[in-house]
Amino acid sequence: MYLGVDYYPEQWDAEFLEQDLARMVSAGINCIRIAEFAWHLMEPKEGQFNFDYFAHVLDRAEHYGLKVMLGTPTATLPAWLAKKYPEVLSVDEVGIKRHFGGRRQACLNSPVYREKSALISTKMAEAYANHPAVIAWQIDNELGHETSDWCYCNHCEREFQNYLQAQFESVEELNYRLGTVFWSQSYNDFNEIELPRPTIPAKNPGLMLYFYRFRAETITRFTREQATILRKIIPQSQQITHNYPGDYYNKAQNFTDISECLDVVALNNYPVWGGLEQPVEYGKIAMKLDQTRGFLPGKNFWITEQLIGAQAHTIMGYLPRPGQARLWSWQAMLHGCNNLIYFRWRTATKGAEQFCYGVLDHDNQDGPRYHEMQQVFNEARRYASELNQPIKAEVALIYNPDNIFAWKIQPQSVSMDIHHEHFRLYQGFIRHNVAIDVIDIRQAIDTYKVVLLPAPLLLTKEQITKLVDFIQNGGIVISSFRAAIKDQDNSVYFNQDNPWLKVAGLKAYYIESLGNNSQVTIRNPSGVEYQAGVWRDMLEVTTGSDAQTIYNYSDEFSSYAAVTETVIGAGKLIHIATGINDKEFWLNLASQVLSLQSIPARLTPDGVEIIRRGNTDFILNHNNHAIRYNDLELEPYAVLIEGK
Amino acid sequence: MYLGVDYYPEQWDAEFLEQDLARMVSAGINCIRIAEFAWHLMEPKEGQFNFDYFAHVLDRAEHYGLKVMLGTPTATLPAWLAKKYPEVLSVDEVGIKRHFGGRRQACLNSPVYREKSALISTKMAEAYANHPAVIAWQIDNELGHETSDWCYCNHCEREFQNYLQAQFESVEELNYRLGTVFWSQSYNDFNEIELPRPTIPAKNPGLMLYFYRFRAETITRFTREQATILRKIIPQSQQITHNYPGDYYNKAQNFTDISECLDVVALNNYPVWGGLEQPVEYGKIAMKLDQTRGFLPGKNFWITEQLIGAQAHTIMGYLPRPGQARLWSWQAMLHGCNNLIYFRWRTATKGAEQFCYGVLDHDNQDGPRYHEMQQVFNEARRYASELNQPIKAEVALIYNPDNIFAWKIQPQSVSMDIHHEHFRLYQGFIRHNVAIDVIDIRQAIDTYKVVLLPAPLLLTKEQITKLVDFIQNGGIVISSFRAAIKDQDNSVYFNQDNPWLKVAGLKAYYIESLGNNSQVTIRNPSGVEYQAGVWRDMLEVTTGSDAQTIYNYSDEFSSYAAVTETVIGAGKLIHIATGINDKEFWLNLASQVLSLQSIPARLTPDGVEIIRRGNTDFILNHNNHAIRYNDLELEPYAVLIEGK
Amino acid sequence: MYLGVDYYPEQWDAEFLEQDLARMVSAGINCIRIAEFAWHLMEPKEGQFNFDYFAHVLDRAEHYGLKVMLGTPTATLPAWLAKKYPEVLSVDEVGIKRHFGGRRQACLNSPVYREKSALISTKMAEAYANHPAVIAWQIDNELGHETSDWCYCNHCEREFQNYLQAQFESVEELNYRLGTVFWSQSYNDFNEIELPRPTIPAKNPGLMLYFYRFRAETITRFTREQATILRKIIPQSQQITHNYPGDYYNKAQNFTDISECLDVVALNNYPVWGGLEQPVEYGKIAMKLDQTRGFLPGKNFWITEQLIGAQAHTIMGYLPRPGQARLWSWQAMLHGCNNLIYFRWRTATKGAEQFCYGVLDHDNQDGPRYHEMQQVFNEARRYASELNQPIKAEVALIYNPDNIFAWKIQPQSVSMDIHHEHFRLYQGFIRHNVAIDVIDIRQAIDTYKVVLLPAPLLLTKEQITKLVDFIQNGGIVISSFRAAIKDQDNSVYFNQDNPWLKVAGLKAYYIESLGNNSQVTIRNPSGVEYQAGVWRDMLEVTTGSDAQTIYNYSDEFSSYAAVTETVIGAGKLIHIATGINDKEFWLNLASQVLSLQSIPARLTPDGVEIIRRGNTDFILNHNNHAIRYNDLELEPYAVLIEGK
After folding, report:
1. Sign of torsion, CA A207 A212 A218 A221?
2. GO terms for biological process (chains A, B, C) (predicted)?
3. How many beta carbons lie within 10 A of that of residue B354, not counting itself?
């Protein structure tokens, strides 16, 4: 089990290296990540390479018995490169170039940038591949983060045209499938197709979907190129990874595709960041961890950056309470992280991250955060064998990048947050402390008993067939509103009933966006009533169908169903046609489904997680107050370990 | 009476044309509008014209007895044109070019664009003018909509300089009349005058007024050019129209000028659109209809696009309730529409308007909206003769584009909404169900008994003279705050009393903007009190004047009047110096004025309209609840027809 | 004592000059400011100078016995200059050029602009220097106002590189001191350093501090160049000034440096402006006046523009009540203004300032504002000798431009408003009606008894030494949160205790940004509790220190101090580690400190000021209601003069 810190020796006077490494060892650290922002140090002038500095760092790390993850430095291009080749700088939607002076400003479609990146990574790999301290390589840093997934430069335009040419047999086929005859947008040639930049008043949703896919493919291709370079040079024992910033729902990225280029995935796990006045809800952190684990099924994952203190560039927020970083670290390990690195050894005194608080403060003393880290590492080592075991789940939440893209292109409701729609279905199950996999819609689902299908706007016929087979064989699918409106080209299904609702024996003619001030409620025959938001489909049970209405709307559309269940073969499809807000609804639904599928569950109070790994129960209290669970009195932010 | 749908056969596989036309006929349709976005289909490559497609559509329409309105296709330039002549693309205020991929991105001052537009319209007119199915032509589509009224390209700059040169005898005269000596902005030559682009901190209001007028004239000139082309080619029996999007208060457009280029005006009538969570207030819809009718006095108008279902690009909102589209259709016809076309036949499955719901849904079935349309058409035909009669009104609301522009340039109050200021004066009269004309300030007013003059910031001496004559002869004028501050150059009247207040026997030295959180109230001697907002002039009755104070302010300015009446000759001027919010005030005022002027009126509950056409009363309930009116129990969205 | 108006004769027909001057004299005016926006009038074409117009105005002013302040016209470049040399126009952060049509659009780093400005000022000085009416010169107008302190043009980039080269011995030194190794931002040459334009996601805070200083120096240098030109030509008796717009906390300007180029400073004093619905708090107006006085210690100052009526470009707000302009004028004089000019003689009828109401209204009558001005002038002359005396203070509030810049670069809390943090410390003292100097941190402080040090994020070792000496010798310093984190390069102090807290015997490991919804309170042992916001440091008293805890936090961090006092030598350091909102806290603190330091004070009710000048007490009621103070019944906006 690798436990360590991110370390930037180059940011400190040379005298600190030796004392830092010695202090790390005494703190229980056995691994450091280094070098991922150090292009200028390794190539100070164009074509002049110098790898002495980190060779020395590696030697000293080896001396202290520390293992090293190396980062390739392509996230931060050097100033000489930006100056000599300004065409590498990316351009925003309105045509404004991003300038040197931050990070991630380069366009991954720039030929010069790809060439220079290939060269520095090649040279670096050659320089360090055989060093005994090296155990892993991180490609770049947080690809696509902070809007860098978008660029509208001329290179991108040409590459987009090439991409489209590869996707369609001819421009006529593109015209037909994307419906460009609408608003006279037919193209005579691929080279007439502009990037979707500011226009009046709305863009072609089909072309936009291909643009999202093209942006995603741009990052995947860069990852693949870099991984291929490394793999040719480094030993098989060294793993290749990349560190995801973890915002899986607001990026033009396909994280499954990227992950398939890697040996193992890694997450930068920050449960609070910047100006947030409260941390992210613990269940959403759990979902992010489960999702990270799901990108390479069956494998655990690294955390390359775990929060130890407050983190911000220019606006700060909530201060993690004493013990809370430990709590979040345990949560991460219990959800599948088996190698954990804190960000960062010592807080920077210069540069843009002066307020990203690391293990050591600016005063360089062994303070509370140092001791909190030490405690986590001591505890974790005792449970290494449990934590290294893979996690087995019977519930799966579906991740479908195309569907996310389709919602981004046409949110339809001002309240639409596709991330939250995933969490809406997930929340009842995490409260029951069952393991949940978040898996790509391409994955096999036949080993699961329950599949959660959040707001599947874009759903292909093949995907529907797979899901129906799953139900027929005894599975339960819970799907939510606006299902299967769109096909793989982001066109609306034409001239037929909605193919997903048809499976359920339903139709929906009346539909309504509910906005931010929705007063709509749903009600069942017993008079139980819940608030609804975001959207609603008014469901009609079609003649001869087996669908059962569970909830109706309670206003003038009260003859229409909001929640239905349909028995299909040996399984069941539960369809929820609106965005229900009450936690209670989701808790009851999960209870019922877990019971039906005989999945063992343990309901805990809100904010409390109990997770069994091996024969040990780990109990976490995310609440800022003490709480009683069974016979246990859990202090705020407590981590209790029982059994073994 | 033409009743029909907008139809885009080119967006569907060829097999649908025949069945669509047949279904239309059986639904009661006798007219379709086609072709207004089909430039690429008619000129797929530069100079290569092909009119076969719509010739075939016209033939088949003729076969089924359907009449056709043709749209010229200039609202959506083809991709080849944008690619070859990028200078045709318009530019926003900060200099960012609008790109291909939407609609209306062309600059109407671009010589190439005007030439290419003239050519396609000429060729199209030649191709179809003599087809027996054709009854009318729509020029372009929603000119000026969606910010396309603004462009800041180099063509516009040159044309603006030419425009100014035509308006002023010399640059010295411009300098003098616009006061460019202020901030050293004197010009030595017209070619030094930049478009009013981003600067620090404020622009010359006189130059801005001329810029608004120039923008308005740009659209008028384009309409005139296109109308002239069509008129030369098409038979006299075919009418020329243009479809207004209906937002008459937020555009740099002069709708009177544009209308004068047309045979008949047309409105696209959407009482709810996009993300609106509630429909537009019914009285504001009525005002828009009355205003559309007023652009060509004495004539009724077309509706070229009438809402039948929810309409949105990317964010949706309120779903029109069953029956509500019928209600709005009847309201439109009762306010002067005598030919009505629904948008659109079948909902698009591809392109930017997938969520603009038409008569048929994506499933292509005869659904509820189909039946609602059919009902409207059946009903309307029975009352064709009533609906074809012109409407006669004794109350006129003044539309003055220059005044609207002046308010846009200097809103003065953060709460200023010049559209609402028009409605403020209109609201009491519509509640009394009297006919109201909205007429341009250039029109004769001597046939009216009441004239409403909303917030006439810019009011010329000639206009004042005409209004005073009207009052002298027995008319009543109701004017509101901030009257007659500005002259025709947007300069403040100098060195004299305010010329409108002088008419009323008033002065206003103290003035105040009331912002969004106004606590100001007005009060009459009986203690009746109303909330005031937006603005207030503190009125003083000048010595020897006949002005009577009706309301005073109730705070430290309580010695000043807020509402006054002045008898002038045989008539009366009622001046309201602040933005009174309470409906009751306006209801009482209208009651009193209608009674004084002996105009027959029928007061109905809020949300209920009763309109007599011929010998028939049509009663509309816009409320979402049942309501009693006289002996009638009106269901939500009811349309009741009585008499005959 | 000069009392007068700003006058723009060039904006009116020639016939008005004579009657205007005569009316001014009869109103009590003895001074006018003219010409500061009249470049085109003096140089209508490039190199063609014509000074006849203002020569005539000066002659006529002399005839009426009026003295004149002349403004150099460089704030508004003529159209011919913008047209011929477009490179003089400034550019915003994203690269958008500011256009002609407003004011202040020129870049002060443009060589052409500096050359043309030098030339017009030279010629103008030569033309008018020897006129007997001239008593003073105003350089330009409101330098840096309305975002004109920022420009990102190519000239600026080159000058910034030059500036940096002058600040650092080598690029290596820059790299080291600014920590550019972070994110691989090391430069090989100064010419690689771009202006800090849009990038991802954050910029180097050290480079940003130098950029702020460079922007500040740009304006200082322009002032110095212009002052040098004037000084060479004009007689010693004519004073050189510049009129500050008064927003000292949101500008990249160093007002101390600028002031040192001048003979006397001047303020444009607008207690309400634009759309503000209420005037600025009277205490903040007082602080602005005290600060203006402090830029040239020991000297009084001019007000070159004093509000007489409502002031706005396009959005108006609160109307100054009758008598309120007089109140504000007296407040200004009592805080150190001894020459006062109202903005402006007659309200403009043309140009961007039609709604900046002057002494005369658009009707050109002697209205209420005319009479209010006349009253002020009559009253003021009676107290000229008192008002001309300098003001002596024993309390000093520290102004530190570098500290303001550091907070702008990294606000750290979403609620941070460094202006308000200055006022937070000032408020209790102004309520006690003691004189307060606002002085630059470079000034000597040994003549004061109390020093207020607001949120001194950036504090150098030398500054700390000076402050400690001050305390040792019996002074009291009140400092607030986040003290001494940064050094002169905007780096965090490394490897040591916080040097300011160390002085106080304190440490702060836990820190937290409190945002906009803070529920945090502080509490003392007696149970007195106050709300805290913006930020908090959790203070620990270090072992063996003399620090006394006065308030603790009341939540889970209740073992940490929020307010402490430390006796040091003969003085005391009071440290307040959070943003306390309650006025009561600050009132009590000031009471206690004034008493300890034996500074005579008179506590008045909120809104009431009492200021003694010579042997006279002046009592001002800023409240909008009557209030009793001692035996006096003060009407709203009253100015009472007692004694003598």
Report:
1. negative
2. carbohydrate metabolic process
3. 25
Amino acid at B554: S
Nearest Cβ partner for B200 among C78, C98, C275: C98
Identify which of B94, B71, B235 has the alpha carbon closest to the alpha carbon of residue B143. B71
Amino acid, res. C217: E
Local structure of B621: helix, strand or coil: strand
Same fold yes or no, C3-148+220-388 and C395-596? no
Residue in A105, B606, A37 with CA at minimum distance from that of residue C180: A37
Q: Spell out the SS3 assignment of C348-381.
A: CCCCCCCEECCCECCCCCCCHHHHHHHHHHHHHH
Q: What is the pLDDT of residues C156-180, one digit of tens each?
A: 999 999 999 999 999 999 999 999 9
CA distance linking residue B252 with residue B269, whole number of Å: 20
Task: Return the pLDDT at C496.
Answer: 81
Report pTM. Answer: 0.97
Q: Binning pLDDT at 50, 70 and 90, where does residue A644 land?
A: low
Please provide the size of chain A in residues: 644
What string of DSSP letters covers B52-95?
A: HHHHHHHHHHHHTT-EEEEEP-TTS--HHHHHH-GGGB-B-TTS
What residues of C form the annotated binding site for substrate? 103, 141
Q: Identity (one letter) of the amino acid at C610? A: I
Q: How distant is the Cα of B387 from the closest Cα of chain C, in angstroms? A: 45
Q: Residue B644: what pLDDT?
A: 52
Judge residue C27's burial from the number of C-beta atoms within 10 Å of its C-beta, 0-12 exposed, 13-18 middle, 19 or more buried.
Answer: buried
Tokens coding A199 = 């226009």
Amino acid at A604: T
The alpha carbon of B379 is separated from its chain's Cα centroid by a whole number of angstroms, namely 27
Q: What is the CATH number of domain C3-148+220-388?
A: 3.20.20.80
Contact present, C458 and C490 (Cβ < 8 Å): yes
Q: Which DSSP string corresponds to A464-514?
A: HHHHHHHHHTT-EEEEESSTT-B-TTSPBP-SS--HHHHHHTEEEEEEEEE
CATH number of the structural domain B3-148+236-388:
3.20.20.80
Strands A639-642 and B506-515, how do they pair? unpaired
Distance linking the first and last C-alpha atoms of chain C: 19
Q: Please name which of B241, B237, B233, B295 lies closest in space to residue B263, comparing C-alpha atoms.
A: B241
In tens, the pLDDT along C600-633 reads 999 999 999 999 999 999 999 999 999 999 999 9
Residue extents of the structural domains in chain A:
3-388, 395-596, 608-642
Residue B382: CB atoms within 10 Å: 12
Q: Is the distance from CB of C536 to CB of C578 less than 8 angstroms? A: yes
For residue A533, the cross-strand partners are A579
Annotated binding site of A for substrate: 103, 141
- Asked if B95's CB is within 8 angstroms of C355's CB, the reply is no
CATH of domain A395-596: 3.40.50.880
Q: Please tell me the distance from the alpha carbon of residue B58 to that of residue C344, in angstroms, as a whole number.
A: 70
Query: Model confidence over A286-295: pLDDT tens digits?
Result: 999 999 999 9
Classify domain A3-388 by CATH number.
3.20.20.80
Q: Residue B635 corresponds to which amino acid?
A: E
State the average pLDDT over residues A159-173: 98
Alpha carbons B326 and B332: distance in angstroms, whole number: 10
Residues of C within 8 A of B515 (CB-CB) are: 275, 277, 317
Q: How many residues does chain B have?
A: 644
Give the whole-angstrom CA distance, residue B637 versus residue B630. Answer: 17
Structure confidence by residue, pLDDT tens digits, C195-244: 999 899 999 999 999 999 999 999 999 999 999 999 999 999 999 999 99
